[in-house]
Amino acid sequence: VQLQASGGGLVQPGGSLRLSCAASGNIFSINAMNWYRQAPGKERELVATITSGGSTNYADSVKGRFTISRDNAKNTLYLQMNSLKPEDMAVYYCNAISSDSLGQRYDYWGQGTQVTVSS
């Protein structure tokens, strides 16, 4: 599985951005997809998850502001980010989780995309 993230940029506080993550390869093996972020000097944190069944989950810090979705026809994962705050500024990474018939888990990562929230 290969992941290509895009959509980051500079936005003012209160603004919106939509991140995209195009998946290719053995996408049928993917069980769930996630967005993570990492701010300077901080650990990488899980922002949002969407399962193959469409269930979603969010970090408390982004609930009500961010929406994770996927377009299966386009093999693309999205993260709609609204009401952005300076504390949302980070490098955002998409992640895919798959498993094989033996239950072995595999993690795949896209390259990061920088989100800068500043006036």
List keywords for this structure.
119 residues; mainly beta; seven-stranded mixed sheet; four-stranded antiparallel sheet; 11 strands; elongated
Secondary-structure-based class equals mainly beta
Strand segment count? 11
Rg measurement, Å: 14 Å
Largest sheet properties: 7 strands, mixed
How much beta, percentage-wise? Answer: over 45%
Quick one: overall form? elongated
Mean pLDDT: 95
Runs with pLDDT <50, length 5+? none
Instruction: Tell me the distance between the termini.
Output: 37 Å
One letter per element, helices H and strands E, the order comes to EEEEEEEEEEE
Helical coverage, percent range:
under 10%
> Helix count?
0
In short:
The chain has no helices and 11 strands.
Describe the protein.
It is a single chain. It is elongated, with a radius of gyration of 14 Å. It contains no helices and 11 strands. The chain has strands spanning 2-6, 9-11, 17-24, 30-38, 45-51, 56-58, 66-71, 76-81, 90-99, 105-109, 113-117. Strands 2, 4, 5, 6, 9, 10 and 11 form a 7-stranded mixed beta sheet that branches. A 4-stranded antiparallel beta sheet has the order 1-3-8-7, with no helix packed on it. It has 119 residues and is mainly beta.
Write the layout of secondary structure elements.
Layout: E1 2-6, E2 9-11, E3 17-24, E4 30-38, E5 45-51, E6 56-58, E7 66-71, E8 76-81, E9 90-99, E10 105-109, E11 113-117
Parallel strand pairs: 2-11
Antiparallel strand pairs: 1-3, 3-8, 4-5, 4-9, 5-6, 7-8, 9-10, 9-11
